[in-house]
Amino acid sequence: NLSPPRICHSPPFPFYLYSTLLYKLNNTKTEEKMKLAGKVAIVTGGASGIGEETARRFAKQGARAVVIADVQDELGREVASSICRPITKSVYVHCDVTQEDQVKSLVHSTVAAFGQLDVMFSNAGIATSSPCPAQTVLGLDLEAMDRVLAVNVRGTAACVKHAARAMVEGRVRGGSIVCTASVAGSTGGRGMVDYYLSKHAVVGLVRSASVQLGEHGIRVNCVSPYVVATPMALRGFGGEKDAEWVESTVGVNMSLKGVALRAGHVADAVVFLASAESELVTGLDLVVDGGYKGHRR
C-alpha cells in the first residue's frame, strides 16, 4: 500500500527567516503611512508641554530619531525613554539655548549620531522672568526683559542658524525648521511687553529665514498658539490655577466652542509643518487659537 503524500505547510526556508521577512514587510507598509518615516528630529523644550507632546507625535509618525533638548534633565530623560520604540531612537541632551555653543553641540552631536538632521523644532521659551509678570511699558524691568529675549529670540535664532547649517552642509532636501511663536507675535497686550516683543521677533526671524533658505530646499515656519495649559502657563498664573480653570477661561475668548485648546492640537500643527504634507509651505505663521484672533476683531 502506498502511503498518502505528506503535506508540508512550512515555508520553503527556515521559519526564523520567514518571520523576519514578514515583520520587515509589515513594518515597511506601516512606515509608508507615517508622516515622518526615517526622519531625524530635534525638539528643544521637549521635556514638557507642547515640546513633549510634539516629540511623542514625531515618534508615532515614524521618526527614526527624536532628540529631546531641555534644561529639565529628569523630565527630559523620562520623555526620551518613554517614546523609544522599535523604529524610533530617542535620547536626551541637556541644552540651554541661550548658550550658542550648547546649541551648536546639540546639532553636531545629533548629526554625528544619526547621520543627518531633517527637522528642527525650536520650541524652548519662557513667558517672563520678572517678579512682576505685568511688565508694562512704564514699569518695564529691562534686565528681566533681557532674559526673556535671550531665551525666546537669541535661543530661537541659534537653533535656526545651526540647524540650517547642518541641513545645508548635509545637503538635506526637504529639511524643515519649525519655531514656536504665539498669538502674542501678531497682537498687543496690556502687559508682558517683553514676551510680546520676543514673539514678534520670532515671526520676523521665520519670515526672513524662509526667504534665505528656500534655495536650499529648507522650509521655515512657525506655530502661534493661544494660551495652552502647559506647566509654563500654569506657572504664569502663579501656580494657583489648574489646567481646567485655564482652559475654561481661555475658551471664553475663542470663537470656536465645545473644544479646549491643548498641547496636542499645537503638536499636530507642528507635525504637519515638519512633514512632506506641507512641502510647499514656508514662511507661514500657522495660528492655532480656536478663533481667538478672529474673536478680537
From TrEMBL:
Pfam families reported for this sequence: adh_short_C2
Superkingdom of source: Eukaryota
Family affiliation: Belongs to the short-chain dehydrogenases/reductases (SDR) family.
Protein's name according to its UniProt entry: Uncharacterized protein
Organism: Linum tenue
